[in-house]
């Protein structure tokens, strides 16, 4: 079994990949991906607020206006498919607000899913007929609900943290460059810095527990690895790099 710390979105200069990586892929019978796959439910499917509620019930007016200003200032960087969401943003849970902000940051940094490793290897699989396992597929709804169920204080902190689009781009660029360098300790240090940036240690712990520990132990690591070792499945396991750091 090969375990590879993946990255969901990248830039064209990531390619070509190292022959060592491609050799591992070509030797494998299955490609295992952290993500839930193209047919999984989106968080958008469950993030519409109940009738009679709007985002203004949860997001303070001053913060809400700052987010709307960022949307307007970066209208040229709104990813395809999100324009309609932004037009109706008050109908969505605060989780969608910080997700949209981060999507704008990625778009502005020219870091795109179509250059990510899942897309690349998924295209290769279509050509050679290799089996694919989507690790989050069965538990995808549960994962999305766990995000929505984060404390409202944490959602507001995540909105605040993604408001500075240029700072988000700088952080993302740094993460991407460290991933390409293979400097695992620096990646861990960067993750710790992001946790230290939270206003409250309890909020940082809550974010780590849900975004990494919960998914790693119960969905993305322990269960599938135990199964594959028992079945002696020879696979290339693509795991997002921060999850991978915790796995090893």
Largest sheet: 4 strands, parallel
Strand order of the largest sheet: 1-4-2-3
Query: How much helicity do the residues have?
Result: 55-70%
Strand content: 5-15%
The number of helical runs is: 12
Measured on Cα atoms, how large is the radius of gyration?
19 Å
Coarse morphology? globular
Oligomer: single chain
User: How many structural domains are formed by the residues?
Assistant: 1
Structural class: alpha/beta
Q: Count the E strands.
A: 4
Average predicted local confidence, pLDDT: 81
H/E element order:
EHEHHHHEHHHHHHEH
Terminal CA distance reads 14 Å
Poorly predicted spans: 239-248
Give a quick summary of the entry.
With 248 residues, the chain is α/β, with parallel strands linked by helices.
Features:
single chain; alpha/beta; globular; disordered C terminus
Report on this model:
This protein is of the alpha/beta class and 248 residues long. The protein has one domain (2-41, 112-247). Helix content is 57%, strand content 8%. The protein has helices spanning 19-27, 61-73, 83-87, 94-108, 117-128, 140-148, 152-163, 165-181, 184-196, 201-220, 222-231, 241-247; strands spanning 2-6, 30-33, 131-134, 235-240. The protein has a four-stranded parallel sheet. The longest helix is centred in the last third of the chain and has 20 residues, at 201-220. The relative contact order is 0.20. Mean pLDDT is 81; it is low at 239-248.
């Amino acid at each position: 079994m090969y375990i590879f710390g993946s990255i969901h979105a990248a830039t064209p200069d990531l390619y070509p990949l190292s022959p060592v990586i491609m050799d591992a892929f070509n030797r494998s019978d299955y490609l295992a991906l952290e993500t839930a796959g193209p047919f999984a439910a989106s968080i958008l499917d469950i993030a519409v607020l109940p009738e009679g509620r709007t985002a203004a019930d949860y997001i303070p007016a001053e913060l809400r206006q700052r987010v709307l200003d960022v949307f307007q200032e970066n209208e040229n960087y709104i990813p395809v498919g999100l324009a309609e969401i932004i037009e109706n943003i008050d109908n969505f849970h605060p989780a969608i607000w910080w997700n949209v902000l981060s999507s704008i940051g990625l778009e502005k940094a020219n870091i795109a899913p179509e250059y990510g490793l899942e897309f690349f290897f998924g295209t290769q699989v279509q050509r050679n007929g290799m089996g694919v396992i989507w690790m989050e597929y069965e538990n995808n709804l549960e994962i999305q609900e766990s995000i929505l169920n984060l404390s409202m204080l944490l959602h507001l902190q995540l909105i605040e943290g993604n408001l500075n689009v240029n700072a988000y781009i700088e952080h993302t660029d740094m993460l991407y460059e460290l991933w390409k360098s293979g400097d695992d300790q620096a990646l861990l240090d960067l993750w710790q810095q992001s946790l230290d940036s939270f206003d409250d240690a309890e909020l940082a712990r809550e974010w780590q527990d849900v975004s990494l520990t919960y998914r790693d132990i119960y969905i993305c690591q322990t269960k599938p690895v135990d199964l594959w070792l028992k079945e002696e499945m020879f696979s290339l396991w693509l795991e997002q790099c921060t999850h991978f750091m915790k796995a090893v």
